[in-house]
Amino acid sequence: MASPNDSPKPSIEVQNLSYKFQDGSAGLDHVQLDLPPGSRTLLIGANGAGKTTLLRLVSGKRLAPNNTIAVGGKDPFKEGLEGVTYLGVEWVLNSIVRTDIDVPTLLASVGGNAYPERRDELVDILDIDLSWRMHAVSDGERRRVQLAMGLLRPWQVLLLDEITVDLDLLSRSNFLAFLKRETETRACTIVYATHILDNLAQWPTHLVHMHLGKVKAWGPVETFYNQIPQWTSENSRLGELVLKWLKEDLDARGPRNGRSNQGKTYQSLEGLGGYGLEKRS
Ligand SMILES: Nc1ncnc2c1ncn2[C@@H]1O[C@H](COP(=O)(O)OP(=O)(O)OP(=O)(O)O)[C@@H](O)[C@H]1O
Fold first, then answer.
1. Distance 213 CA to ligand 1 centre (A)
2. What pTM, to 2 d.p., does this model score?
3. Is the CB of 45 inside a 6 Å radius of any atom of ligand 1?
4. What is the 54 CA–ligand 1 centroid distance (Å)?
5. I want to staple 9 with a disulfide (CB 3.0 to 4.6 A). Which of 37, 66, 135, 207 is the partner?
6. Polar residues composition bias: which ranges (predicted)?
7. DSSP state string for 235-274
8. ipTM of predicted assembly, 2 dp
9. Contact between residue 207 and residue 41 where contact means Cβ atoms under 8 Å apart
């Protein structure tokens, strides 16, 4: 019988990937990445940097240009990748987890009975009460059940698009430790887009820094730490590095609504009504 370990090694290769949205606006610009099998990559970037766009393309949910993406050596869109799990916003909003349904039924519906040991481990680490009914749980409790559902089948590539925001600190820490163990004990690879760095200092093997649809830098995590020779106890070294990157990105981009041009804009409105008509005394 085939086991997940018989599958091709789950590397993620992105070659010169540019992507435009349907309205013609630029989504990604010449993205180049080569994430090795077994890696745990953090995707870092400000809001709107292109993280979700990249993850959706890598997962095969969006069509990328030919020969730009290979996951375990395969084109994710053409080959409908078995073993690639993408957990993002659409998945979080799935309405079934808000109905009056019990947890064992939900877990069985996603194959829980085929992987009883994994199911029981996930129930344990995510501290799930099997007597919960899903219409009567908190957001964080619902998220934990969803995570158990999403992680149950032994994926080879896991693409996570910040879906841990509702978890309390301990649940999130257990969840991250589980993911780390997974990459250490079987052939699998993770890419995680997040803004929350708690408990993550020792987690990633690789970092990808995105800005305005481009990958500004990527590589093994230790190759970046010389950028942060000193760090405070308030932030981890990773936290300091990410803060530095985001500040640089903001400086490079400038303010969203062009405040530096504001005087000019108001002048050009003169005569059109509003403040432009006021006379200086
Ligand atoms: N369907 C779309 N059509 C046009 N532009 C889009 C579309 N979806 C996203 N964008 C734009 O593409 C850019 C990247 O969006 P994306 O969702 O990939 O960012 P992100 O890095 O995941 O941000 P966040 O941290 O806020 O989740 C944003 O400027 C966004 O407005």
1. 9
2. 0.84
3. yes
4. 10
5. 37
6. 258-268
7. S-HHHHHHHHHHHHHHHHH--TT-GGGHHHHHHHTTTSSG
8. 0.97
9. yes
